[in-house]
């Protein structure tokens, strides 16, 4: 599928940044020393100053708290109730695949893109079922209560090879047809390789304050 227009992607990023999101994360790993279970937190986007060559960045930030020690594997018990956080930069450019996700440079300076996580390869609704049969990462399930004939979805995939471990990611964004309001989104990371066998499902809903 051809990528949505720059205008459509700007609208998507605007919708993401205009709302603070609740994050429900489910982690499944074959490694008993890694956390398995659910994490709860919040996520938000903020637009960064425009860069050269029509490049525009949005900073994605997520944060939450690990559960009690009884829910943690022994190797991670010391992290009980500790705060966790992560940042990525979503970049809009004039590239063939104009939307991409980047790791953020580590340090005390301003948040800047370091190296590429993956490009967003958008897929038409008509090809979703066929594509899912030939891909390690099926599209994530949508939260209960948001699926209806009055909504539509925008879906994308991305791949990242970390040494010998392949991270395959699928995204689903659900909009209201009449208002174009983004009412939920989700992502699924499927990790396969000699060092890891893990699945991470993220469900995002608007934070009601």
UniProtKB/TrEMBL annotation:
Question: A Pfam family this protein belongs to?
Answer: DUF6314
The cross-references to InterPro entries, in alphabetical order and at most eight, read: DUF6314
The organism's superkingdom is given as: Eukaryota
Instruction: Please list the residue ranges annotated as the DUF6314 domain.
Output: 20-204
Record protein name field: DUF6314 domain-containing protein
What is the native source organism of this protein?
Answer: Penicillium malachiteum
């Amino acid at each position: 599928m051809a990528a949505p227009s720059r205008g459509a992607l700007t609208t998507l990023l605007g919708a993401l940044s205009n709302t603070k999101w609740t994050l429900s994360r489910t982690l499944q790993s074959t490694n008993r020393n890694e956390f398995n279970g659910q994490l709860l937190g919040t996520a938000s986007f903020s637009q960064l100053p425009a860069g050269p060559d029509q490049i525009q960045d949005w900073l994605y930030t997520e944060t939450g708290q690990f559960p009690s020690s009884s829910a943690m594997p022994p190797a991670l018990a010391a992290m009980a109730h500790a705060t966790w956080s992560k940042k990525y930069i979503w970049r809009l450019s004039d590239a063939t695949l104009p939307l991409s996700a980047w790791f953020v440079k580590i340090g005390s300076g301003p948040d800047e893109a370091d190296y590429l996580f993956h490009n967003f390869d958008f897929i038409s609704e008509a090809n979703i079922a066929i594509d899912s049969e030939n891909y390690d990462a099926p599209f994530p399930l949508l939260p209960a209560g948001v699926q209806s004939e009055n909504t539509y979805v925008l879906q994308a995939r991305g791949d990242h090879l970390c040494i010998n471990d392949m991270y395959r990611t699928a995204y689903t964004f659900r909009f209201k047809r009449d208002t174009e309001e983004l009412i939920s989104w989700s992502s699924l990371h499927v990790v396969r390789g000699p060092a890891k066998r893990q699945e991470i499902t993220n469900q995002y809903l608007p934070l009601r304050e």
